[in-house]
Amino acid sequence: MTGRDPHAIPRFSPEILATPSSSIAMPASDLRQHTAAAGPPTTTQHHHRQASDYEREEEEFVWAQIKAEARRDAESEPALASFLYSTVLSHASLARSISFHLGNKLCSSTLLSTLLYDLFLVAFSSDPELRAATVADLRAARARDPACASFSHCLLNYKGFLACQAQRVAHKLWNQSRRPLALALQSRISDVFAVDIHPAAKIGKGVLFDHATGVVVGETAVIGNNVSILHHVTLGGTGKAGGDRHPKIGDGVLIGAGATILGNVKIGEGAKIGAGSVVLIDVPPRTTAVGNPARLVGGKEKPKEHEEVPGESMDHTSFISEWSGYII
Description:
Layout: H1 14-17, H2 28-34, H3 43-76, H4 81-89, H5 94-106, H6 113-126, H7 128-144, H8 151-157, H9 159-175, H10 179-193, E1 196-197, E2 202-203, E3 208-210, E4 216-217, E5 222-223, E6 228-230, E7 234-236, E8 248-249, E9 254-255, E10 260-262, E11 266-267, E12 272-273, E13 278-279, E14 288-290, E15 295-296, H11 310-313
Parallel strand pairs: 1-4, 2-5, 3-6, 4-7, 5-8, 6-9, 7-10, 8-11, 9-12, 10-13, 12-14
Antiparallel strand pairs: 14-15
Helix pairs in contact: 3-4, 3-7, 5-6, 7-9, 9-10
């Protein structure tokens, strides 16, 4: 025994932090892909390569922006220089930076930061889709939240973003049958960020958890791409059903603060759920549901439909001026 404080946050030397990501062993599945017999690429393979190239360029661009922003902030605010160096500037990649940051954020006396760093780094380094989702989430926060001053601000300070990235790793663990560790990680995410997302829940990319405090997402919930969810939203069960019992949120949906959606209901693509609403039945695509219990703007028989994607526009209130049922 060394007498070391078990609560102390371990730090890594610059030499370790600067180790290039290429030194990480390539997963066996990737090795098999690279050693496959050569031949003319199919159309599907060509499209996959194009998508992969685009995602890699996006990741490199966003990472370069984050480093530039961190250098600027370190120069303008010396009190943060050490933190910015250890968390961003000393790292060779976004995967290493976010793994280090999450490891330090979520560590405890039983889940050491070194263990978590390795856990996150293996997940992010071996999974391009995981990194692409991270980049899409960073872009979503920057584009949709006027308070998001920079990519680095989101990476370092947005607990909704950090909780989402950690949940994605917990989801991988869940699917690998490492469920006790996935649940332990869920517990730490809930303790640290006040965001409780079951590791079995499926989350798309380009997702914004804005403010995020009090968000609860159940085990069989599904959240699509380009969705925006505000604080104190619950995607829960009815309390009396088992199996597939949680909401399915389509692409481009906006869910306002304090909304509660219960049961295995479908929120259609591009729908909008008003703040404080309680939703117990399906909501059609491109419609707005408000109230407790929620009802469709324009009526059930012929609900008013909107053209924009509310999950991206973040337009919470434009329907009110045209809704005759709104009284103040």
